[in-house]
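Fold these two proteins, one after the other.
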Amino acid sequence: MATVVTFGEAMLRLSPPGRQRLEQARSLELWPAGSELNVAVGLARLGTTCAWVSRLPSTPLGRAVDAHARAHGVDTSFVQWSEDARLGLYFVEVADPPRSSSALYDRAESAFATLDPEAFGWTAILEGTDAFHVSGITPALSESCARATADALTAARAAGCHTSYDVNLRRLLTTPERAAEHLESVAGLLDAVLCSQHDALALFAVGEAEALRDRLGVPLVVLSWATDTGRARAAVGETIEELRREEYQAVDPIGSGDAFAAGFLHGLLTADLRRALELGDAASALKLTIPGDAPVITPEEVDALLGSTEARVHR
């Protein structure tokens, strides 16, 4: 039985090689993608038993996503299959400053966005599970996805699971006002909220972890933000933990937040809040060096980064 269950959409990401613009490209690199799928992959690779719940089309593209998840050790036995739906796509231009990386979605009416909330037997899915994770992307996809998210969190709370929610504001899918409304509607079912300072300011006009925790009334909030020289994170729960590190050059900036969530949850389930923050930050830093969306990392790499003097976490 899975220690952690995640719930969310998967897509295929298509990116031009070599920092090209989409309009220049004559070939595209293909990567399975999706926030909760990325978290599941990261957890499995770090040694936490994990299942990913989703809905895929019964097409070669859907099967490719399923094979990707299983190849990294993720249990996909709760994935539903659709005979007459499509897999969402998104196109990403990875860029170096001063040009920003950008995304173009083609995911409307996907198999996942058109799911039936009544089709998921959450009590059976969550039996014996320790933790449930979802992001703000999932409820932003459709009203049925929003209902399924609330149903899943309600069942997870009833099952005694630790529940976590990564805000992940996507302005191409929703507005800050709608994202804040949904988060507030499920806040009473959450044990932990992960958020960037940028998103916290957009949703609630607060920029500190303690203020966001008080605003939502959740036991634990983790906030991340950029500094002049790198990145800082603060976790405010029963204790307060903070760390700062220098920034690393990004081969691919997509998915580093999901890698953080995976490392953080792995640490929270196996150690303590300090270790969770360190593991999450190290996993996130390593993901920056890896092309594609998934954190294809190992526990040994994470431990080596935390133990090194050149790329250590500054406390």
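Now the second one:
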Amino acid sequence: MNETSNSKSRVIISSIISKLELILGGFFALLCLIGSIALLSDSENSGAVFFCVLFLLSVLLLYRGIKRGKLIKLFKNYAIRLSSDPMRSIDLLAENTGTSVDVVRNNLQLMILKGYFKNTYIDLDQNCIVFTNDRATKTAPAVDSSITDSSIKLITVTCKGCGASNKIQRGSVGECEFCGSHIAGH
């Protein structure tokens, strides 16, 4: 499995796991409710421990599902905001999301560890996120701005995987700088 599909698949798999955790957590909570009603009529309370454990499991699953879902939603929000910031500034991202810089940095680090952002690291000196495959960081030959080639047209394409904006040559196929999904410049 290549790195591009690996990043996108991690987000998709994490989203599926989040939904499964929520469904199972809700199902177990419903079982606990039904079991608790049944225990009220049972004078021995023989299943009380079982239903307590099941209740704790349901709470844990619901908590993890909600937390994972929020992280995926936050990843998509960060990807969109970072795509419009050429400096990839963590300070600006924190300001735009109304969150502290430390929280944003920790969230980004968690997203990098989970593989949501590919080829990425946090530059603590510049306080920014760096995409090692970012077109802005690659050295390119100097181009005379007075010369324009009308056959090369860059268009902005929104990634269907994460929602980030990417510039790509019209008629070409590339990959999202943020999640690695395939994008096409139609």
